Amino acid sequence: MPTLDWIGKDKVINHHLEVPYRVLERQYSFDEEGQKSEDNGSENMVIHGDNLSALKSLLPQYEGKIKCIYIDPPYNTGNEGWVYNDNVNDPQIKKWLGKVVGSESEDLSRHDKWLCMMYPRLKLLQKLLSNDGVIFINIGEDEYANLKLICDEIFGVRNYVTNFGRQMKSGGAKGHYYTPSLDYVLTYAKNIDLLPYFRAVMSQQQIDVFYKFTQKDGSRKGEKYGEERLFKSSLEARANQRYYIQCPDGTFAIPPGETTPDELKEGLIVTPLKTDKVWKWIYSRYKQEFDAGNIIFKRTKTSGLVDEHGNQCKWNIYNKLWLSEQQEKGVVPSNLITEYENRQSAAELKELNLDFNYAKPVRLIEYLLTISRMEKNAIILDSFAGSGTTAHAVLNMNQKDGGNRKFILIEMCDYAESITAERVKRVIQGYGSGKKAVKGTGGNFSYYELGEKLLDGEYLNEAVPVSEIRQYVYFTETKERVKENSEEPYQLGVYLDTAYYFYYERDAITTLDRGFLHEIKTKANAYVIYADRCLLSDVELEKYHITFKKIPRDITRL
Fold it and tell me: Distance (Å, rounded) from C-alpha 338 to C-alpha 363?
């Protein structure tokens, strides 16, 4: 497989392993009632801080659990006029490059810098993605080719899904050789064998086109595109995909042997089926009439299907039964996206009264989440959050279908609270006024800052709460959350019949000895016990199936 090399790659290829784990410190929570200091228990997060460190901090709770990642990283165009600096010359990135890459960073091209910045972040994103998850990366043409090669390396060539071309604008005449009108959404699966097939709901435009092509007064006139064609193709050739005939009186004729569909019984269509009539299906390609109970229908070349009184019979193409069937089945989406131009996002931000350039349209994110069939409880992550469009899209979808999707936003710039979090607040509570007022979606989130490093050199950082250390240790052992046990305060939990203990006191030296063994009440096949020191002999450790781990030496670095 072809791979990409650049100055500094050898310094960053495993840098994600060296990134120190930091705790996340909640600053406040927010819901429909406003901002509050107490924790509201929200699983939605807006995190301010370097996204490399923040992604590392998410691992204990979210590794392998993120169903969808959408990111809109810097396009690296060299433009320095954006609020979201788009040439990776952000002071934090430059400082990071100097520290990680060293003196070589002074000789890096902007493409080298961009690749050094992106590579370790993509490595952590790959770890966070669930096995049936998908990542969408919005990118421009300046770095598309480079991004494709490093994604092939990190996610695997066979997990490449597609590259959606998106029309970001129409019109204009900028550019020397052409007008740049496209950007791209590079798409990868964690494991493409487990990724559900993408499906898109039929748009109103698609429905209109289908309707025209099946009506005699449509854009393609002629008998083969009229009701005759619809009747034969839908009811004869595809007997399992029937489109029921709506009679002049509003009732429906159905084939013999079929029960009335639940959709009809529930009255979702204009007029439910009348159960006091016996409908009988009599039709073949050799007959020009059929009866349905006591009504005879005849086919004419001029007026289509009529009853004995000359009343036109309609095909229920537009009824809710047909639409719901199509929406449930969906259509395979095109990898050309033309409906969500950037001018939509400009209008959205104007209504939100937020000053931010080059945000993506909310409907674009909603579309990507829809075609990838995000379940109602999926977790969606955006580690280049910008103005918070991804959270806006998630809240909109939850409002529409009653879902409980969660969002995690990470933004390193200073506007993380004034723009990113502020947008989420306004979406939750509602915004605009008068005719342009938008009702709030409801929902909640908590706002976090990056906190202390877990380890201070070779020692545990005493500024970090013990509860956070316990969570970290247990996750590195089991990929599970701590299961508190009031009877055994030092126990972390039991996993695969192994009991885990973290015997730690901030102001005292802890010793694994016979006295501590007598305090253990849980019976298990094996034990892993962390302590400052151990007085048990190797024979005793083997006898009781104990693995001793020294604090902090044996605490795993993620």
Answer: 12
d(CA 23, CA 538): 35
Q: Is 507 exposed, middle or buried (0-12, 13-18, 19+ CB in 10 A)?
A: exposed
> DSSP letters along 134-157, please?
EEEEEE-TTTHHHHHHHHHHHH-G
Distance in angstroms (rounded) separating the CA atoms of residues 59 and 56: 6
Can you give the pTM of this predicted structure? Answer: 0.76
Q: Please tell me what DSSP assigns to residue 193.
A: T
522-557 residue pLDDT tens: 999 999 999 999 999 999 999 999 999 999 999 988
Length, in residues, of the chain: 558
Tell me how far apart the alpha carbons of residues 110 and 89 are, in angstroms, rounded to a whole number.
Answer: 8
Report pLDDT digits (tens) over 372-431.
999 999 999 999 999 999 999 999 999 999 999 999 999 999 999 999 999 999 999 999
Look up residue 343 and give its two tokens.
């001018």
Are residues 99 and 166 in contact, defined by beta-carbon separation less than 8 angstroms? no
> Could you give the C-alpha distances from 393 to 381, 515, 518, 525, 547, in angstroms and in order?
12, 56, 54, 48, 48
CA atoms in the 13 A half-sphere facing the CB of 268: 14
CA distance 335 to 386: 25
For the chain, report the end-to-end CA distance as a whole number of angstroms. Answer: 28
What is the CA 526 to chain-centroid distance, rounded? 39
- Check if the beta carbon of residue 156 is closer than 8 Å to that of residue 329: no
- The Cα–Cα gap between 428 and 55 comes to 25
How many whole angstroms from its chain centre is CA 103?
38
Q: Encoding tokens for residue 557? A: 């670095």
